[in-house]
Amino acid sequence: MNLKFRLTLLNFLEFAVWGAYLTSMGSYLAHHGLGHHIGSFYSIQGVVSIFMPALMGMLADRKMEGQRVLSMCHALAGLFMIAASAYAYNAEDVHFGTLFTLYTLSVAFFMPTIALTYSVAYAALEKAGYDTVKAFPPIRVWGTVGFILTMWIIDLTGLQKTPGQWMVSGALSLVMAAYSLTMPRMPIKKGEHKSLAEALGLNAFKLFLNPRMATFFVFAMLLGFCLQISNGYANPFITSFGAIEEYQNTFGVQHANILISLSQMSETLCILLIPFFLSRFGIKKVVLIALLGWVLRFAFFGLGNPGGGVWLFILSMVVYGVAFDFFNISGSLFVNQETDESLRSSAQGLFMMMTNGLGAFIGTLVAQAVINNYVFHPQANGATGDEVIAGWQTCWFIFAAYALIVAVCFAILFKDKKSPSSDPSPVREGR
């Protein structure tokens, strides 16, 4: 079988596992009395992302071949996810503690598989003599296709509000565990190994000595607050319109996951725009465009509805690609360009820690507190459908205002690099 096709299938399966529940899990929780815990389920991804990828990466470097570590992680993630699904199906009264523990164990082993999948693909392509910069992106895009496909499957099979979405994810994870073992072998690295501090990217904290980089990383964390909010809450928000007779039979209420999948489609297309925007406008303006994207993402949710206002929901999905890619991808490229080669890997780890780790963790918990106050607590006290929707709208406008404030502060505090003498040189690792 052609190597590129094999790696394409690997990436397809990897993200199909995630797409089965990431955007629909909130609806299950909201409709089974656990809506006030949605933020906890999404924030735990940020917690485990801080250390688990590094630990599994070190295991792949020192003790086991990378494809075997990938297989092991998927096997454990799949088994724990299936256990979570089975518990939710069979329990008369689903307890948060039990479900959250099983889910956390699954996510703890799943999150490292993203980086491991990339490592397996890079190693296989390099061994076969391919240029990874040119060969990998067309392979990776099929990961997004896999993510979208399982979103649609969960939607069309009526599993959005059931634990069946976790069963599908767990089953796919076990398929991925078996398929990973067919990948080309990754030799265990010999010689000098990274310390735990280096693997976690902690040595990159010296970049905070550079005022420009320190400002960028702080804003990376502040923008990271936005990353998981719509993943966790867009689906339960849209489906909550079903409590209002006018919207009960609209496409959005009946097929929220398909509507939300437009976000992933937009994300795929917006990646292609990044080189042009970065070269034409520079990192500061590109990040400001991303922040404006988040403002519009949340504001359009607050203004729209699944009836006559569904076009605003569609616009919210379209601008998501700009909001997500123009910061995550451009930010990663900026960090790579602005740091010395000796610190680049650690700097990327720090960037991920600040955005998808610390930022997403704090932001999701804050969002949970806001939404509980305006939506789930009033709903538990007998609020009408219109009152619940009004609460949701208030939350989206709060999140939009937050993104706007961050954008204004970034515009004022982050300085463009005008000349070599006006900006500190990249921080270099001392010996």
Structure overview:
The protein is mostly helical. It folds into two domains: 199 residues, Growth Hormone, Chain: A, CATH 1.20.1250.20; 223 residues, Growth Hormone, Chain: A. Helices cover 74% and strands 0% of the residues. The protein contains 16 helices and no strands. It is globular. The N and C termini lie far apart (47 Å).
Which helices and strands, and how do they pair?
Layout: H1 3-19, H2 25-30, H3 38-62, H4 66-90, H5 96-127, H6 132-156, H7 164-180, H8 196-199, H9 211-224, H10 229-239, H11 251-254, H12 256-270, H13 274-303, H14 310-338, H15 344-380, H16 385-413
Helix pairs in contact: 1-5, 1-6, 1-7, 3-4, 3-5, 3-10, 3-15, 4-5, 4-7, 6-12, 9-15, 9-16, 12-14, 13-14, 13-16, 14-15, 15-16
